[in-house]
Amino acid sequence: MTHNPSIVVFDIGNVLIRWDMQYLYESFFASKEEIDVFTQETDLHAWNLQQDLGRDWAEATDMLVRDHPRYEKEIRAYRDRWHDMVPGVIAGTVLIKERLQEMNVPLYAITNFATDTFRECQERFPTLKQFRDIVISGDEKIVKPDADIFLRLLERNGLDAEDCLFVDDSLPNVEGARAVGMYAHHFKSPFGLAQDLRAHGFSL
Fold first, then answer.
1. Residue 204: which pLDDT band, with cuts at 50, 70 and 90?
2. pLDDT tens profile 37-51
3. How many Å apart are CA 132 and CA 5, to the nearest integer?
């Protein structure tokens, strides 16, 4: 007999809220190609991941400015204007989440996010406060797809992996969830998520 999950675990960035460096840096550079050169030269994605692991923003910013002084203005804008990267929610996913809440489906979240910027986003978008528990990488000093971050959610809340359906836009994170025994959905659109939730027995 097929086992259907009864719990939904959401990623946050690019599942419930939009996040993209392009939104900020299109005001600094003339083209996407120039943005790409900047992010590659500074290794900005790897640098940002260290804040998701709990590194202090001021320390991180000063270090990167020291290594790439010609980009000082752009680097300092990363934290100073961080919210420019997050223009709003993904409305379709929020509607799905609200429907699941109405059905009393237990909802949790696991996110790679710096602690302070996540708390700020919760103030901007109250839907991000409406979970039974949220595992934030900046608090835990672990990032997805490390198995430990998934296990932390399960152990902290007394959950069984096979009861959980994890939703993430990153395929490595989806595979990480499956590796610990969770069901997982590779998020590409709210429509696709709704279809998969129905396939797993959630009557949206």
1. confident
2. 999 999 999 999 999
3. 17
